[in-house]
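Target chain:
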Amino acid sequence: MEVTEFDNLGYKIIRNLYNPILLKLPMPGVLGKYSYRSSNLNNFKFKEEDSQVPGSIGCYTHPFFELAYDEIKPKIEQAIGEELYKTFYYNRFYFSGQKLQEHKDRKAAEVVCSIHIESTIEEQWPFWIKTLDDNVVSIKLNPGDGVIYKGAECSHWRHSMPGDGYYHQIVMCFVLANGNYAGFAGDGGLSRREWTMIQTSTGELRPYTDRMKK
C-alpha cells in the first residue's frame, strides 16, 4: 500500500471540500449541548453546558447534517486511500475568548475531518495540531475547507477565539473499516444509526450497516 502524506504526518488539508452554504445551521437560542438520537428534531437530550468548551453550543449528530455526512465520507476515503465506517459527527458554535484545550480524541474518532462552516470574526482562527513527526502546525481554513487528521493519535487544539461574534465548525468522525477500532462503527450504538453485528473472516464480531458504507 502506498504511504501517503496522511500516513506520515497524521493530517491532510482539503480545500473546497464541501459547499459551506449547505452546512449553515441556524444557531440554537440556548447555550449548551444538544444530543440527537433520531431524525426527529424534537427528539434530543439537552445539557446546560458543553463540558469540553463551556459556554459554547454543541450538537451531537444533528439530523440537518446527515446528507453532508453521507456525501463527504467518500471524499475523505479518496483523500486518504482507506475505506471508512461512520461513527458520529458534532458541530459547535464557538464564541469570543473560548478555546479548545489540547487533547486527543476517543477511539470512535480515529479519523476526523474538521470543516469550517462560517464565522463572523474578521481574522482566520487557526486549528493547531501536533503531527506524527512531532512538529506543531497551525492550519487556517476558509469556509468549506476541511482538515482530515488522526484524532486518536495527534494532539490538537485551538487558542482563544479572537474578536467578537462566533465561529461555526463541524467534526465528522470515522474509523478505518479494516482497522483496530472498526468495532466503534455507529459510535458503539450511541448514534442514531441502527446497526447489526457481522462476523469477519477471523471470527470477530463487528458492527455494520449499509448506511455506514455509503
About this structure: The two ends are 23 Å apart (CA to CA). The mean pLDDT is 89. The longest helix spans residues 66-80. Helices lie at 5-9, 66-80, 210-213.
